[in-house]
Specification:
The protein is mainly β. The protein is built from one helix and 24 strands. 7% of the residues lie in helices and 53% in strands. It is elongated and about 95 Å long.
Length: 371
């Protein structure tokens, strides 16, 4: 009898071990953090992908917790988000996403709802995630690691909602990916003729240079319009400038493609510029009109020159001289405040002078001060 009891116990134990091993075999998979990128000094992005390393299986739900090296914050405040539209799963990671402080330890967290996604040997992207800092990131390594303990931890479940989490299946991320440039500003000025792009860098690593790209609202494709050499390696602020002269009205978009010496590249944010090409000398009607006591005068210059903008009363007497200087081509505006003048009709006169001082063009416009 003892023999049969021992045999039965051995059979049950063997069956249990087989079941456990079968479950572990079913759970052969790996989860990787990859394609990390420090996009602009303030935003750190990375992908998380999952794939089967054995039999295909269904992933019903998942919850993730990641720790990281808090010194990368550099005194700033972090926020953590899923980048919309980047997941290749039906069950996307939009639940409980954010930064959690658990007993003094910061965790990057996200989870899914309930669903079923077939996981095969082809890597599938759970999503791309962005860690944003209010300060520039330090040069410390990110040291992103999976967390499998605590109140909030990493758990992956199969189609029957069994916990199939195996710590050996998860790879960590040890570094902030270097980028050729820490871009601290990117802006423009438009003078009616030229768009002047200005940008500054805090540091540069193996920076080959910047390709300037443009697209417009009609041809929605980026094209290269110029190149500016980078500083190579630099730990001090560098200032750059590039001028473009669009010849048509409309909305234009600009961006920088910073390229390092190995051919890797990053794109800057985009700038939007509304272009109104100046093709004539013109004095516009003041606005508002009638006015009390302030109004704005706007005029356009198709080329640079000496400009006079004068105000006369109805008797032809000069009241004030608003502009008397050389000005570049483009659209200009001047505010006029008539606090000490009485109600009535006033004349604005725009004169463009030649290099020799003779009048080339003269324009006038009536204005009504109504108190």
């Amino acid at each position: 009898m003892k023999f049969f009891s021992a045999l039965l116990h051995s059979y049950i134990l063997t069956s249990l071990v087989s079941l456990i091993l079968s479950s572990y075999t079913f759970s052969q998979y790996k989860v990787e953090i990859s394609n990390s990128s420090l996009t602009d000094g303030y935003n750190y992005e990375f992908d998380i992908c999952v794939q089967s390393t054995g039999a295909d299986f269904y992933l019903s739900s998942y919850q993730t917790a990641l720790s990281f090296n808090s010194s990368i914050k550099n005194g700033g405040t972090l926020s953590f988000n899923y980048i919309e539209g980047t997941s290749e799963l039906n069950n996307i990671p939009t639940s409980g996403i954010g930064l959690l402080d658990e007993n003094g330890i910061d965790k990057l967290c996200f989870a899914s709802n309930s669903g079923n996604d077939l996981i095969t040997s082809n890597p599938v992207k759970i999503g791309r995630f962005r860690l944003t800092n209010t300060n520039l990131y330090s040069s410390e390594i990110s040291d992103i690691k999976w967390v499998f303990s605590g109140e909030v931890k990493t758990i992956f479940c199969d189609k029957d909602y069994n916990d199939i989490t195996l710590t050996a299946n998860y790879s960590n991320l040890n570094d902030l990916s270097p980028m050729p440039v820490e871009l601290t500003s990117f802006d423009y000025k438009y003078d009616g003729t030229d768009v002047t792009l200005n940008w500054n860098t805090a540091t540069e690593v193996n920076n080959y240079g910047f390709e300037i790209q443009r697209k417009d609202e009609v041809n929605n494709e980026w094209t290269s319009i110029g190149f500016v050499n980078g500083a190579g390696n630099s730990s001090s602020t560098k200032n750059y400038e590039f001028k473009d002269s669009p010849d048509k009205n409309g909305q234009y978009f600009y961006r920088l493609k910073s390229i390092d010496t190995d051919g890797q590249f990053e794109f800057s944010n985009e700038l939007s510029v509304n272009i109104e090409v100046v093709k004539e000398f013109k004095l516009c009607q003041n606005y508002p009109n009638p006015f009390n006591p302030s109004t704005r005068l706007q005029y356009s210059l198709k080329s640079s020159g000496k400009v006079l903008l004068e105000i006369y009363n109805s008797l032809g007497e000069l009241v004030t001289l608003l502009v008397n200087e050389n000005q570049i081509a483009g659209v200009h505006q001047v505010d006029w405040k008539a606090d000490n003048l009485s109600s009535g009709i006033y004349i604005s006169r725009l004169t463009i002078l030649s290099d020799e001082g003779s009048n080339l063009y003269t324009f006038t416009s009536k204005m009504q001060l109504l108190k």
